């Protein structure tokens, strides 16, 4: 397995885990989950200590996904799916519900959704038991489609020939992307609060949830892009022999690493950068940071002033806190641009209001 510096793209270390590495995922605290041979392992963020290994074989899984609240890990492989306790490594259930290779997974508030290679089959699964509740056949022509996302009551999937489908009732649905989208998808879908990312056929694209292409970038020379992973502020992709780090705002390449092969075996299948938003849930996805300040009135500290911290991207209230007796306050907020408002009513009933200008940038 390769460990790569996310700031520079330099290869930091080649790590020999003593077996074939088939899948990898990283949680938001940095812990790493790796399929090594027939077993799933959990490592410390620096990869120096193995915390656990599943007590029995897991049937060659190579798709690894962190589940809701980051409490479980879901694994998929050739005709098998498993749910594993993220803290202990206990296999909660494993089942041969899959029809073929597991390509992608997604979650809504109740169910697990799985996308397979076989005829683009997708299944709705009870996460408590592993039982299949419903399934839909996507009726494809080849195996270029490997993505599924369930978001805000809609079911999204990639299709061949630069098409994306959606439905509101877990069915095949209809194509909804605009004519600017021109990516034959080879990677699964990833999302953030603005929409989708998908790649393949030498291109990567970002679409909103209505199918409008926000940006699309073509790589030269044109090459197939096999793997895709995102975080709140980064996109990573892998072709046959190159790994890219891309700005999610515009598709600009931040760095590329041309040394990502292992004795002619390409890392096509998995990048462990950050858990998927549609798997762990929005409340666990976005990075947070600590910000603080002081409120004074006529040079004196103000006790009990209310501080409203507003996410400038969504215009929603991130949190509210009150100042201490010395006028200070601190809060944990999303690692995005935050607009701070201070409100205070003194003992005479006089009201004071002050806003941050320019906006407080939490980054």
TrEMBL record:
Task: Write down the superkingdom of origin.
Answer: Archaea
Please state what the protein is called. PQQ-like beta-propeller repeat protein
**Top-down, what is the taxonomic lineage of the species of origin?**
Archaea, Methanobacteriati, Methanobacteriota, Stenosarchaea group, Halobacteria
């Amino acid at each position: 397995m390769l460990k790569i510096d996310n700031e520079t793209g330099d290869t930091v270390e080649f790590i020999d885990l003593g077996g074939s590495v088939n899948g990898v995922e990283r949680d938001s605290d940095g812990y790493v989950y790796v399929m090594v041979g027939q077993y799933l392992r959990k490592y410390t963020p620096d990869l120096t200590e193995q915390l656990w290994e599943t007590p029995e074989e897991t049937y060659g899984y190579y798709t690894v996904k962190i589940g809701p609240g980051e409490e479980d890990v879901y694994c998929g492989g050739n005709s098998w799916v498993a749910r594993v306790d993220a803290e202990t490594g206990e296999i909660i259930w494993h089942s041969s519900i899959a029809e073929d290779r597991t390509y992608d997974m997604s979650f809504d508030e109740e169910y697990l959704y799985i996308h397979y290679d076989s005829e683009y089959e997708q299944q709705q699964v009870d996460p408590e038991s592993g039982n299949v509740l419903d399934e839909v056949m996507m009726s494809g022509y080849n195996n270029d489609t490997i993505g599924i996302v369930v978001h805000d009551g809609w079911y999204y999937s990639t299709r061949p020939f630069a098409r994306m489908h959606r439905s509101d009732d877990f069915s095949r649905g209809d194509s909804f992307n605009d004519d600017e989208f021109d990516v034959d998808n080879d990677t699964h879908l990833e999302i953030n609060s603005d929409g989708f990312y998908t790649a393949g056929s030498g291109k990567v694209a970002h679409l909103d949830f209505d199918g409008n292409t926000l940006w699309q970038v073509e790589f030269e020379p044109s090459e197939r892009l096999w793997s895709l992973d995102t975080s709140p502020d980064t996109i990573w992709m892998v072709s046959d022999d190159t790994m890219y780090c891309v700005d999610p705002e515009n598709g600009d390449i931040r760095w590329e690493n041309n040394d990502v092969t292992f004795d002619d075996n390409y890392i096509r299948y998995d990048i462990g950068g950050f858990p998927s938003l549609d798997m762990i849930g929005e409340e666990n996805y976005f990075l947070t940071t600590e910000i603080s300040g002081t409120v004074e009135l006529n040079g004196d500290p103000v006790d009990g002033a209310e501080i409203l911290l507003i996410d400038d991207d969504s215009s929603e209230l991130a949190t509210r806190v009150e100042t201490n007796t010395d006028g200070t306050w601190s809060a944990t907020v999303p690692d995005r641009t935050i607009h701070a408002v201070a409100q205070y009513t003194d003992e005479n009933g006089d009201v004071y209001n002050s806003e941050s200008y320019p906006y407080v940038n939490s980054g």
